[in-house]
Amino acid sequence: MIKIYACGKMKLILPFLLSILILMLSLQHLYADDTPALPMGLGGASQQSDNSDQPGLPAGLGPAVTQESADDPMPSLPQGLGARDNVTTAPKQAPETKSFLASVTGFIEARGGMRLNNDPYEKDTSLGELRLQFKAEKQLGRFLIRNSNDIYYDAVAEERSVHLEKGKGFIDLRELSLSFSALDNMDIKAGRQILTWGTGDLVFINDLFPKDWQSFLLGRDTEYLKAPSDAVKASIYTEKINMDIVFMPKFDPDRFITGERLSYWNGYRTAGRDSIINAERPNNWLNDYELAVRFSKNINGNEIAFYGYHGYWKSPGGIDPFTFRYIFPELNVYGASIRGQAGRGIGNIEAGYYDSRDDSNGDNPFINNSQIRFLVGYEQDLPMVASDLTAGLQYYLEHMMDHDEYLDILSPGSPAADEDRHLFTLRITKLLLNQNLTCSLFTYYSPSDQDLYIRPNISYKFTDDWKGEVGANIFSGECPHTFFGQFHENTNVFIAVRYNY
């Protein structure tokens, strides 16, 4: 399905060779008798990757656990998908070390899954992969180099060609970036990186950075919901306000549902491998760019932020009436959020206006209408009920602009979307056995669509290095065309074992 031409090969080979070089030098360091690596935190580098810089699910699963911090389990995106933007900066001076790399970490994981329903359009096995991830970083004076790479074998995938932007093949380059302080109050991070911001818990409004919905719904670790971006990020800090500017020279879309691994509603019927989506993507460097900005300030313990985005719908938001291929129409988003202490817990409010620039009047039947999206959430520890118990509740509204015009041009017999889509989410997390056992349940329920999505998960730390996990993705709905209802046949269970090194 995918061909890699000469220029495409160079885009693949260069980062791959850099990653292999870093790995070899890292192993050289691990087995050398040189000066020991600096302890964690010295030299300006953390051993963990910088995840703090990131349709929601095709139309409405938008917002992220707290999109303010990619490493917070609650209320951020679970296990690594937060939205708090913790900027990693390189100190201006760092102690010299003889080794090339300051730290190398990673894991080896085996993960398998299967469907519980008989889906005529997909394989019974949903997951079957062995994955090796390594993360490496090095402080070179004022510069911090970071690399995060996954090398894996996917037994279920039929397409073996490597495509770094789609995360296909045997390698997924998660990060290859350079960070430095350009000024005393300005940090720059350039290259492939994970970006995130906003306040939602697995619901995204102003986070217009790419998501990997296929990984999320198949049962991979939630860190893989965030797909990487090729971008330059500038963070400016002042006494009055902080500003983040992200420039992506070429459009980075979501890794959206295509039918290759998950069946979906194609507008007329449920489809899958018999009707794989081949979207027409804006793909010209500098011409098809994206720009995202955020202004933020902490006032009396409340983080207030304003957002702007110029680019395209992240998942296909229209159809070309001449070629009948899915397209990514132009999109502007303007939003704001507030997050802070509320009673005994943490509350958040976020809103955004989605300006569908190619259908400003709502009278084009082939392009998404403009929308207003709104989110309010609250999460709190519940020691009065049980120790180490946390619960979070969210309400999300997606309001379609120009709904009357939408109904006027709707094709006869086509199911009509509601003017307002309502969605509630509930997260419950309980820690047991000295916090080695984590039991969590995340539920989406839409009373307007009358559909449901449940994500139960249990993980146990056998040792500091070994962890086991079991979970499921359960879908239900009254109609096959609603967002969660379309995935009914994709209900699956999965199991994983991971060794961290």
Q: What CATH architecture label applies?
A: Beta Barrel
Would you give the CATH topology?
A: Porin
Number of strands: 24
Compressed to H and E, one letter per element, the order equals HEEEEEEEHEEEEEEEEEEEEHEEEEE
Number of helices: 3
Notable traits:
Porin; disordered N terminus; 18-stranded antiparallel beta barrel; 501 residues; single chain; 3 helices; 8% helix; mainly beta; 24 strands
Describe this protein's structure.
- The protein has a single domain, classed as Porin (Beta Barrel).
- Helices cover 8% and strands 43% of the residues.
- The protein is built from three helices and 24 strands.
- It has helices at 6-30, 213-218, 403-409; strands spanning 67-69, 83-84, 103-115, 125-140, 143-154, 171-183, 186-193, 229-237, 242-248, 264-265, 270-271, 290-299, 302-312, 318-319, 326-327, 330-342, 345-356, 371-381, 389-400, 420-432, 437-446, 451-461, 466-477, 492-500.
- A hairpin with a 2-residue loop joins strand 4 and strand 5 (143-154).
- The relative contact order is 0.13.
What's the arrangement of secondary structure elements?
Elements: H1 6-30, E1 67-69, E2 83-84, E3 103-115, E4 125-140, E5 143-154, E6 171-183, E7 186-193, H2 213-218, E8 229-237, E9 242-248, E10 264-265, E11 270-271, E12 290-299, E13 302-312, E14 318-319, E15 326-327, E16 330-342, E17 345-356, E18 371-381, E19 389-400, H3 403-409, E20 420-432, E21 437-446, E22 451-461, E23 466-477, E24 492-500
Parallel strand pairs: 1-2
Antiparallel strand pairs: 3-4, 3-24, 4-5, 5-6, 6-7, 7-8, 8-9, 9-12, 10-11, 12-13, 13-16, 14-15, 16-17, 17-18, 18-19, 19-20, 20-21, 21-22, 22-23, 23-24
